Amino acid sequence: MGGSDGDGAEGAHAGVDPGDRPSAGRYVGRFAPSPTGPLHEGSLVAALASWLDARAHGGRWLIRIEDVDGPRCPVGADATVLSQLAQVRLLPDAPPVWQSRRGEAYQAALDRLVAAGWAYPCGCSRKDIAEAIAARGGQRERHGELVYPGNCRDGLQGKPARAWRLRSTAGIGRAGDGDAPLRITWQDRRLGTQSQDLTDEVGDFVLKRADGLWAYQLAVVVDDGWQGVTDVVRGEDLADNTPRQIRLQELLGLPRPRYLHTPLVLGDNGEKLSKQNGARPLDLGDPLAALRRAGDRLGLPALAARTLPEWLERAVAAWPARRR
């Protein structure tokens, strides 16, 4: 989506120019909110963590508006998010990027995956998937989503194409060969060693949805690679996405960033604070107080400061002791 309020900020510079990518070893971080509404306290914690990590490493910090799911993004929400970040002095080192304007790049990536045999069209509805799973004697659900069993890997079988999926197996085998399962192992700077059987726990995942919208997994990988992102700092709820993104990085020949997943901010009901469960918009009547609360959530010590710049400076100095 990307409302008109953001047009002037982006202009012809639709992100970090490929010729301006960081040199080897230079830190580039990013905050990538979905503008489905104003930021809440959990959003500010994620933004502050990524900003602090970039500043503590002497690196660059970017903002990417992840608005590929246009129907869920109200007009003007992107401008509200950018305004909230400006109020707490979390300012990017380059103009923001809107994913809704990057469709050609995502299509080019999908075309490469299709040409290599890794991506394929899928004609299955949710009902089709559920019936296929039941026929195999299981109810494979994961976070409320059905684990796709690969019905269309070897052809649509007369069904019209609805979505595009990526094979979750280690190789590309012929029908009946039984492709070997694929386990992805990675190191998180806070969570330590993580591992996931992509084939059994996730299945062949969507790259382009049945409604024609680009899936988050593909868009984020393409944009992280294009922007030269070296470090991804985000909430722990997104750690489960990391193996899928690592696999796409491998297949598209993109470098793997370092990952740091921060603790979740929970609501009074013990659930993750999010717009979906009614999180209140961020109260910025006192921006410094809002930053202090976010810093406390991240485990920063109490910092004596009277102004936003002073607090941020001291928070950058305190950050390395918390997250290495």
TrEMBL record:
Query: Which SUPFAM superfamilies does UniProt cross-reference here?
Result: Nucleotidylyl transferase
Q: Which residues bind L-glutamate?
A: R30, F31, A32, P33, S34, E66, Y216, R234
Give one Pfam family, short name only.
tRNA-synt_1c
GO cellular component term, pick one: cytosol
Q: How is the cofactor bound?
A: Binds 1 zinc ion per subunit.
**Family, per the entry?**
Belongs to the class-I aminoacyl-tRNA synthetase family. GluQ subfamily.
Protein name according to UniProt: Glutamyl-Q tRNA(Asp) synthetase
Source taxonomy lineage?
Answer: Bacteria, Pseudomonadati, Pseudomonadota, Betaproteobacteria, Burkholderiales
